[in-house]
Amino acid sequence: MFLFNYRYRLKCIFKDKQLMFWTFLFPILLATLFNLAFSNLSSADNFLKVNVAVVQNQELDQNPSFIQAIDGADDLFIVKYTTQADADALLKDNQIDGYIVFDSDLNLVVNQSGLNQTIIREFLDDFVQSSATIVTVISQNPAALNNGMLTGISSRTEYLTAVSASHSNPDPIVNYFYALIAMTCLYGGFLGVKEVVAIQADLSAVGARINLAPTNKLTVFISSMLAATTIQLLELLILLTFLTGVLGISFGDQLGYIALTCMVGSLTGVTFGACLGSIIKKGEGLKIGILIGSTMTMSFLAGMMSADMKYIVMTKAPILGYLNPANLITDSFYALYYYNTHTQFFTDILLLCGFIIAFSSITYFVLRRQKYASL
Amino acid sequence: MQVYKAFFKVIQKNRGQILIYLVVFMVLALLLSSTYNPPQDTDFTKVKVNIAFINNDGDSQLVDGLKIYLGENANLVDVPDDTQKLQDALFFRQVEYILRVPAGFTEAMLSGQDVQLEKTTVPDSTSNIYMDLLINKYLNTVKTYTTYLPGLNQTDLNQYLKTDLAKQSEVTMISNGTHSAYAEKSGYYFNFLSYSTFAILILGVCSVMLVFNDTDLKRRNLCSPIRSTNMNFQMILGNVSFAVLTWLVLISASFVMYGSFMFTATGLLLLLNSFVFTLAALSISYLIGNLVKSRGAMSAVANVFALGTSFISGVFVPQALLGANVLTIASFTPTYWYVKANNEITAAVNFNADNLQSIFTSMILVLAFGVAVLGVTLVLIKQRRVEA
Question: Which pick of A79, B37, B296, B333 has the fewest CB atoms within 10 Å?
Fold first, then answer.
């Protein structure tokens, strides 16, 4: 009976085109769209050399040290030497971020306040400030000039050593995909709802027929739920393969733990749907409506629409994060990808298991021993 | 006008789904209006990077001086010194640079020994380069003083640093004219409007078409004593009035939020652009309405179409940040041209022949999409009737 029902439930689910669209094709489609839209987002922060023009005039020629300094900063700037008129035209076309005019003082001309402009400004300030330092030192200790101070000041010491935050790149884009997986897991709730409807005598004709059969309802239900979980897990694995293989999203390399998260996530989704399906007595439309509404709200709080949302919840209301299955699934993937330890990961997984147990017990107590005076 | 009335009766029956999209749009429109936009300065302002400053050394004037200096040139964000909290803050860009002053830093620095500070950054980012410049400059200045003025005490050192580093170069800002603070916000609003317009029109028109295209019902209607021209006219009127109504409802919030700005040239162009887009969206919805066979497929198509075109055309992520390939694909959808025109309208400080030409070209393209799709639909309907 167990295998018989399992096989037929698999067939029923596979043949439900609408269900397969929402639980399987829709997440893949959304992932593709995310990838198309976000692929340039993280490289937008990357440093590109700042385009800057220097206006050629007499003052400039009298300050070779400045020319030397700016030519030496070729890791920062792409320098063009132009006339004033050309510099204006370049700036207007946004070909350069700003231009430098040397007329008695250093003068920077820009057309907006941005980080690139700030970098040019900082470079010029640095030049002015170093000169001030030299003057101060010489006025206090004239001998310094003979001790190689000028060469000392132009050879800068590097005081900073980079320490990476984690073995993985801090790329907030991946969180969108993790939240999308969480959404897919909870969309497994559609399958849960379907199974509950199919086994309750007052919700479907099939349910009425099954209740008449001389077999243990729990056995039948468990095999139905297993069928739903099997399909959900399969869909999730295909999505994961698609994300890593086709879209190139990184999940870290702890395959075993990733599989565990998928397993637990699928179960959470399916039992969540079953729980909703059994508590809400009204029509299927309402069940689906509440399922979509709650899934979307939870995915939103897990950062599917804006990654900042996850951080806000994490820092301002951590409890909300722990009570949100979508966030727990997202957070498991995030912890695996980014953290050096597994404490957070196991906390998430344990909490998810708690949710699975809670959802299952509620479903169990609602479904068992129901009797109908009439149908 | 039975057909016209029936059209809106069907819409009424399906208002639930449509209202969801309307509510989502209104909520987002409200969120948009509440986000703070700093007024556009005509003076140059430095960009301040968010950084975390962690001191593992004891308190000293040198460290304080550095912290104060960084506080003036960057935003110091308070993040607890905990590995995961720091990792989180960097991942979600709450800070872009974490500076850690090691123990024994002051002593090593003052005695001229080699010392290294730890930085944790977003690799290869512009903010990383900028902060490196600032911090290295500060410490190199300290080095110059300690090397050439040995025996300088920390108070004097801080004083010298403060005076030197307060020197600044001149910055002239060439402004391109002032921009209304509303221009950018209303741009987001109208870009987002395309998503809702599409979703609502597809759902509305499809639900009506599903009813009217039902074979039995269609046969019954064809033998009714109303001429088919009259019936078609009422259908067209129904579709157009539904589209105009949707447009009016969706733009209404812009008048509440931006007020008289909507009556300036920028505002009026945005309204015109969105109206043209609504017509094109109606035409596409009409085609979809004639292709879709079931209610399940209807919501799937509405979602896929509205989300898909919006994502690749720059509704959710600005066009400037999309890849060239994506934009090429997107240019085969009206949404791309609609968003492009919106961006140009809101970016323009004043309107001249150049930018107006570009804006109107986009609008005409959107309209052309509408006309072309309508042509296809009419051929399709004609063929179907012959088959039936």
Answer: B37
